[in-house]
Amino acid sequence: MAKVELKQPIVQAIAEDIKDAQSVVLVDYRGLTVEQDTALRKQFREAGVSYKVCKNTMMKRAFEGTEFAGLQEFLEGPSAIAISKEDATAPARILCEFAKNAEALELKAGVVEGTVYDVAGLQELAKIPSREVLLSKLLGSLQSPITNLARVLNQIAEQGGAAGETAEAPAEEAAAEEAPAAE
C-alpha cells in the first residue's frame, strides 16, 4: 500500500473534524508535562472542544480549500489543534488561561468564525466570556428594570399604607378635640 493511501484517512478525519467548526486554534505543545497535558485535555473535554496532535502536512492538506487555509503559514514545528463546533471562543479562552500557568504552551494562530487571528488577536478573543455567561448577563440586565420597578411599587405601597394610617390618626384626634369644644 502506498504512503498516500495510508495518509488519506487521517487527512479525511481532520477535514471532517473542521468541517462545521466555529473555531480552530493551533498551539505548540512542546515542553508540557504529562500532568499538564492531561489537565488541558480535561478542560477541553468539559468545554466540548476537540484537541489533537497532528502532522503539519496532514493539517495542510485538510485545510486546503476551507476557511482554515489561512493557518497553513503557521504550521511549523510540532502542532496541536483545538477545534470547537459550539463555542467559538472556548479554545482561545482555555488555551490563554492555561498558558498563564504553563509557559511551555505557545499559541500559534487561530481561525474564529472565518477570520484568521495571530497570538495577540487570540488573547483578545480569550477575554470574551462564554455564551452562557453572556446570556446570563443579558437576562440579568433585562430583569433588572422589572425588579427595580417592583421594589419601587412595593415601597410606595408600604409608604401609602403607613401614610394612610397616620392621616387617619390626626383626623380622629381633630374630631375628638372638636367634640368637647362643641359642648
Automatic annotation (TrEMBL):
Region named Disordered: 160-183
Gene3D superfamilies given in the database record: 3.30.70.1730, 6.10.250.290
PROSITE patterns from the UniProt entry: RIBOSOMAL_L10 (PS01109)
InterPro entries: Ribosomal_uL10, Ribosomal_uL10-like_sf, Ribosomal_uL10_bac, Ribosomal_uL10_bac_type, Ribosomal_uL10_CS_bac
Gene Ontology CC: large ribosomal subunit
Any one GO molecular function term: structural constituent of ribosome
UniProt keyword annotations, A-Z: Ribonucleoprotein, Ribosomal protein, RNA-binding, rRNA-binding
Biased composition (Low complexity): 160-169
Domain of life of the native organism: Bacteria
GO BP annotations, alphabetical order: translation
Family to which the UniProt record says this protein belongs: Belongs to the universal ribosomal protein uL10 family.
Function description: Forms part of the ribosomal stalk, playing a central role in the interaction of the ribosome with GTP-bound translation factors.
Subunit structure: Part of the ribosomal stalk of the 50S ribosomal subunit. The N-terminus interacts with L11 and the large rRNA to form the base of the stalk. The C-terminus forms an elongated spine to which L12 dimers bind in a sequential fashion forming a multimeric L10(L12)X complex.
Protein's name according to its UniProt entry: Large ribosomal subunit protein uL10
